[in-house]
Design brief:
Oligomer: single chain
Structural class: alpha+beta
Number of domains: 1
CATH superfamily: Gcn5-related N-acetyltransferase (GNAT)
Strand content: 15-25%
Order of helices and strands: EHHEEEHEH
Largest sheet: 5 strands, mixed
CATH topology: Aminopeptidase
CATH class: Alpha Beta
Shape: globular
Length: 147
Amino acid sequence: MIKIIKYSEDAKNNEKLKTEIINFLYKNLENFGDPIEYIENAVNYALKYSNSHGGFIAVAYSSEDIMASVAVVLYTGLKGVFPENLLAYLAVDKKFRVKGIGSELIQYMLNNTTGSISLQVDPKNPAKKLYKKFGFDVKYLEMRLYR
């Protein structure tokens, strides 16, 4: 049995939890992850450590209260061409993969957001199949200019 807990601005002062979430994501995103400082920036944005629109972090715990999966959702403050929500990160611990926990967390995210949701996924990431199952589709090709 999975228990999902939603953390938002009210969890801002829980440094232990914040560190645990960041480390979990860094470890479990594996080849599709980002540098730890990028993950920390997204977590800080969701928990409103700075002047941001905020968001939330959904954590799925196993029956033994072990962190099994984490999703970080950011509110963009935008509408229309740019979705209101961004699924910044979703990771499932190796021990809990292929058990439906990622699906449960996505469904939880859908139930706890309003408006459109965007995400970025590497074309080689097997999670792409899961996102498509929930109706996510390629709308635009992202291009970046790094400075």
